[in-house]
Design brief:
The protein has 599 residues and is of the alpha+beta class. Helix content is 35%, strand content 20%. It has 20 helices and 22 strands. Strand 14 and strand 15 form a beta hairpin. Helix 12 crosses helix 14 and helix 13 packs across helix 18.
């Protein structure tokens, strides 16, 4: 009996030991290994507040401030910390509906029940002050300081770009961001996001049961100081940009001006445009929707970078260079113009007639001359395919049919068709005359205003260019942006530019571009009229000046404005005059352009 008793006693003791061991192990795990309960307790007393750094400022090339920061506030919510609160009061305070409130809370819970997310963005100082008085009534909510972009001059909207809330796809790509963070969406803000955004900081604060901040945790020992983003100096001349936008008011089109010796963009105008301040603050979403759906003006569309047009007669300059490089002609080669280029019964008309050399052809913009030059270039090989590919290689090297891939986002590459395209289109049966209209900038060829401005920079430099770009220095004005400092050979011998330039000089003094003449500045220019199947032709002009020491190359396209010499040429010359002289003496020309409205 005693033996049985002893066995039972041992079993009971063993069971108790096992239970005690399990209890001790569990207690050790909870207190030493598992931090979840500790974290929950700490979370009720501590809050990690992300400190968003101010974005870097943006200056123009002359130190004028283009973009700065203003204080703003975001209302944040931590779903797990929510308790019963007066939803009607919060809705009235924020001026939102209850449906919107529930929708935002649901979005926050889906993002994370433990992490804070933005509930109301970009509140002003006044709105924040009103909310702060009653924030204790809404447990689980707190306010986080932010900054908003501000644009003192309201210019260069397409180039500066704008900042918006990050989307899900962007969140997955970069762990730096959390839901509700802002990121550069377009322009410089997008291209230089990593430089502008800075480095986030952190503050650990003590809060009470009503989520009211009681002070710093450990006197800030665990805080991390935010680091402001790098400042940028862009290549834009703010005064020239403002003047260009003024000239293009009530018109559709673009201006691109480049400093040939560096590839720095001096101004880049696309109209219609918009005030960049519209895409800042609480009304950003509403304003963006209105701009996006403005199908008449399409103000968000950057015509200078994305619009593609037949370049018209300005493209003859490229074809004249290529024809010389391929030894198809030289400056003394004469073609006779009988008032047009004939292909069977079809005639490409020309207002010029008589024997013409290369210089005179540029001066008078002779269609016949450049049709023959193009035909002879692409027909100068065993097959049309081989000849066209040689021409295409040259035109690509001059910057057409491709993107420059610099700090100008969302750039179009234009259209320079491939050999395969023409083989498919014409079932392999085509020749130089089939595509001869490309010789005068019509037909299948299309380019962007940026590409045409770059061609003028190549001509001004007599054979090379630097990729066009819009940021001059990063972090300090003494820290130049060297990303685009490589000189690019355009593939044309320097001597072949001289007859082209001589013809362009004559176009200003006695040819089609007399409206672009400026007293005291020797101008080099070429008019163009780009055919438009949807309405009146586009007015086009390309120029640089001064001729022997080029400081600025300009391309202007004004939609539906007709001849290049009537509208685009005076606008381009006014840009050159203003940039070089900083004043306009041809006030009558300026007045006519400012008063001109073209729909």
């Amino acid at each position: 009996m005693s033996s049985l008793y002893q066995q039972r006693k041992n079993v009971i003791i063993l069971v108790m030991i096992v239970f005690m061991a399990v209890y001790i192990i569990r207690l050790f795990y909870l207190q030493v290994i598992d931090d979840s309960y500790k974290d929950d307790a700490m979370r009720n007393a501590l809050r990690e507040v992300i400190v968003h750094p101010p974005r870097g400022l943006i200056y123009d090339r002359n130190d004028s401030l283009l973009v700065f920061n203003e204080a703003a506030y975001d209302l944040m919510v931590v779903p797990k910390e929510l308790h019963d609160f007066d939803t009607v009061d919060l809705c009235n305070t924020l001026d939102i509906t209850k449906e919107e409130l529930l929708k935002r809370l649901d979005k926050a819970r889906k993002y994370s029940p433990l992490l804070p997310s933005v509930f109301e963005q970009q509140m002003s100082k006044e709105d924040y002050g009103y909310l702060q008085e009653k924030l204790y009534k809404f447990p689980g909510f707190f306010v986080q300081n932010r900054t908003l972009r501000s644009y003192p001059s309201a210019i260069a909207a397409h180039i500066l770009g704008y900042v918006g809330e990050i989307n899900d796809a962007q969140l997955k790509k970069d762990s730096y961001y959390q839901m509700g963070d802002y990121i550069g969406i377009s322009g410089i803000e997008k291209s230089y996001e990593e430089e502008l955004r800075g480095v986030k900081g952190r503050r650990m604060v003590l809060v009470d049961v009503h989520s009211r901040v009681q002070g710093s945790y450990k006197n800030g020992e665990e805080d991390i100081v935010a680091r402001q983003g790098s400042n940028l100096w862009c290549t834009i001349d703010a005064q020239l940009q403002k003047y260009g936008e003024k000239l293009m008011a009530n018109k559709r089109g673009s201006i691109v001006a480049i400093e040939p010796s560096t590839g720095e963009i001096l101004c880049i105008v696309s109209t219609p445009s918009y005030d960049p301040n519209l895409l800042v603050g609480k009304q950003r979403s509403k304003n963006y929707t209105a701009l996006l759906h403005d199908s008449v003006n399409v103000p968000l569309f950057n015509r200078a970078l994305k619009a593609i047009y037949p370049p018209g007669s300005t493209f003859k300059l490229a074809n004249g260079l290529i024809a010389q490089q391929e030894k198809v002609l030289n400056r003394n080669t004469i073609y006779n113009c009988g008032g047009g280029y004939r292909i069977g019964s079809h005639v490409i008309g020309c207002h010029h007639s008589g024997p013409t050399d290369l210089i005179a052809a540029v001066r008078s913009s002779c269609n016949t001359y450049f049709c023959r030059a193009f035909y002879n270039t692409v027909s100068n090989c065993r097959t049309i395919q081989e000849g066209y590919q040689i021409w295409k290689n040259h035109i690509n090297q001059l910057g057409f049919g491709q993107c420059f891939n610099t700090d100008l986002p969302y750039e179009s590459k234009g259209i320079i068709p491939s050999v395969e395209y023409f083989n498919r289109k014409y079932n392999g049966s085509w020749n130089g005359n089939t595509i001869v209209s490309m010789g005068i900038g019509q037909g299948e060829v299309c380019s962007t205003p940026l590409q045409m401005a770059n061609l003028l920079a190549i001509i001004a430099n007599r054979g090379y260019y630097y990729k066009p770009h819009v940021v001059k220095a990063i972090g300090s004005k003494n820290n130049p942006n060297r990303r685009y400092a490589q000189k690019i050979d355009a593939g044309i011998n320097s001597e072949y530019f001289e007859p082209i330039i001589e013809g362009m000089k004559l176009a200003i003094t006695s040819g089609t571009a007399r409206a672009a003449a400026i007293e005291g500045i020797e101008m080099v220019g070429k008019t163009g009229t780009a055919q438009n199947p949807h309405g009146n032709d586009h007015s086009v002009f390309a120029c640089f000046g001064p001729a022997d020491n080029p400081q600025i190359a300009v391309f202007v396209l004004v939609e539906n404005a007709g001849w290049g010499g009537t509208v685009a040429a005076p606008i381009a010359s006014l840009i050159v005059e203003y940039y070089i002289n900083r004043e306009i003496k041809r006030t009558e020309v300026e007045k006519r352009i400012l008063e001109l409205s073209i729909k």
